[in-house]
Description:
The protein is an alpha+beta fold. It has a single domain, classed as CATH 1.10.630.10. It has 18 helices and 14 strands. The strands form 4 sheets. The protein has a 6-stranded mixed β-sheet with strand order 2-3-4-10-7-5, with helices on both faces. It is globular. The relative contact order is 0.18. The structure holds protoporphyrin IX containing FE.
Amino acid sequence: xxxxxxxxxxxxxxxxxxxxxxxxIAAIEAARSQHWxxxxxxxxxxxxxxxxxxxxxxxxxxxxxxxxxQLSGLPESGYAGRRRKSILSMEGDEHTRLRRLVAPAFTxxxxxRLRPTMRAVVGDLIDxxxxxxxxxxxxxxxxxYPIPIICELLGAPPEDWKLFSAxxxxxxxxxxxxxxxxLPLIERAAAELTDYVSAMIAERRTDPRHDLxxxxxxxxxxxxxxxxxxxxxxxxAVLMAGTDTTRNQLGCCVALxxxxxxxxxxxxxxxxxxxxxxxxxxxxLGAVRATARFASExxxxxxxxxxxxxxxxxxxxxxxxxxEVWTLPNQFDITTERVTAHMTFGSGIHFxxxxxxxxxxxxxxxxxxxxRMPKLAARGSIEWKPATFGIWxxxxxxxxxxxx
Length: 404
Ligand code: HEM
């Protein structure tokens, strides 16, 4: 049987850009009930857990991050050619080598090392607003939370968190859809970060400490080592992939608990529910709603031909509520033991390298917040970021709670 060309299929349309959160979920559900594949803004979209996993594990589908500059209309010879590759956009042997070398530095044990810092950072942020009995949760807690932890992870002094925060903001402009204009700022931030991290690496080569850079320097496998350039790239990847994600995920979790006050009270009483609360919140309302791949060659999947270059978005949010997999997918319940893992950390070779760290950050923050912010409720309506396929969460989340 010959495969049918994807462009010739009659498919449901899925365009969630600018939609409110519930509308976006409803749009995915409507498309998924008609077909396993939908036509979307950039190409196609898969929405069931089975297909999302299959596409993310298929090594012929490559990360669309590597073609972002082209999609933004930048010439190959310019930014795309100059900029070093990130682990997020590498493929094949190059990616396998790096992941293998780096894996020992990203274990749950190394994440656990940072738990006291996480508790101290979140505790301090709560102290500032607790007597008021109200705050704007995104600006007061989510925004400042992850950067000091990434600084501690890398081994940078805590007073430098503002530098890291500014670099992260500028490097994130990559996703603003205005690459041509933002390019000088992005390049300057990346160069400053590289200089800073390279100086730290030079120090640690003679004076190792208990931090990620010292761990990366010490790693050697079969005579293979990471270069300074690779370590600087990893520091940038960690800053990029590990700050806005965690912030938005914390915002998503707390917004959800505003709708479920009984479960917030339960978490305060039983902090041991934190791991389940984190997994269930990430399934129900994940901050990364989709990630995109492109066909690096002509690919036949489920008897459909995806010609080289076709973009396929994998709707992690759709997979997380796939009725064929989850019992009561639209019910949020932190006491349920779910057997399937959610998809908000992705799957396949690019599966989130910081998953253990992110889990620890959320597991430390949520029960402490639940205990120190009892009777939490949203003040007015929550303002959400537009439901594009990037990192997503509340833009503003004014809350009130019993002061302490
Ligand atoms: C709740 C917070 C987080 C979420 C939801 C999240 C989600 C994801 C997802 C979906 C991917 C795969 C992207 C793709 O396949 O295209 C990914 C990759 C990655 N994440 Fe996370 N992430 C989080 C936190 C972190 C943290 C804290 C770090 C840093 C320590 C981190 C570092 C990375 C890196 C380096 C990659 C690229 C891995 C590779 O390409 O091999 N992430 N993350």
